[in-house]
Amino acid sequence: MDDLFSMHTIAHIRSDFSTKFGVPRQSGLVDALEAQVVFTPPYRNPDAVRGLEDFSHIWLIWAFHQAVRDTWSPTVRPPRLGGNVRMGVFATRSPFRPNPIGLSSVVLERVELTADLGPVLHVRGADLVDGTPIFDIKPYIPYGDSHPDAVGGFAAAPAGATLQVVIPPALLELVPPDRREALRGVLAQDPRPHYQSDPTRVYGFTFAHLEVRFTVEENVLTVRDILPRP
């Protein structure tokens, strides 16, 4: 049997993240994050999503397109362990894999039928960079996909919100009202690399066409500036 398979990009995500910095480390951690799944022209067929609106959640199968490498390593350094401990790549969700494939469970808000783009899926809680190619979409089946008694290894507990977020009112006014809750949620998750804790360092990432700059001291994240980005 041939062990090489070709896959087609059926859609791309439209999200508020132009780079991976700031993206939540798992799907569902920031429920207020909104995104859209836009199908590529060959798959803009309303019949392909018939019945999908009856499901509350869907699985997105996608590519770590910014982490493609020619080689792979059997071990990686998970951020959850501070980047100092090596674990088997198949015991992690690291993007650096033999095949750079990601899996995310997201809330399906609605299916919109548009004249120019065909069906567009509006989702919440996605952990994908804008433009990420999607290979497949599957409905989330509660009785088969949820295992409350499952053991989660070193990632058993969700990362959760860890920081108190302070955004000066004048800076908050620069953020569109429908993005403010999502931004707070992203910042509360502590987007810094786990191994960095310099209180004097100014970090920055792009979100919703804005550059958000912040510092962190102990458990308080303070937004220092918000600048428009093209």
Structural account:
With 230 residues, the chain is mainly β. 7% of the residues lie in helices and 32% in strands. It is built from 3 helices and 12 strands; from the N terminus they run E-E-E-E-E-E-E-E-H-E-H-H-E-E-E. The longest helix has 9 residues. It is globular, with a radius of gyration of 19 Å. The model has no long low-confidence stretch (mean pLDDT 91).
Give the CATH class of the largest domain.
Mainly Beta
CATH topology of the largest domain: Elongation Factor Tu (Ef-tu), domain 3
The percent range for helix content is: under 10%
Class from secondary-structure proportions = mainly beta
What's the number of domains? 2
| Lateral strand order in the biggest sheet | 1-2-7-6-3-8
The backbone outline, from C-alpha atoms, is: globular
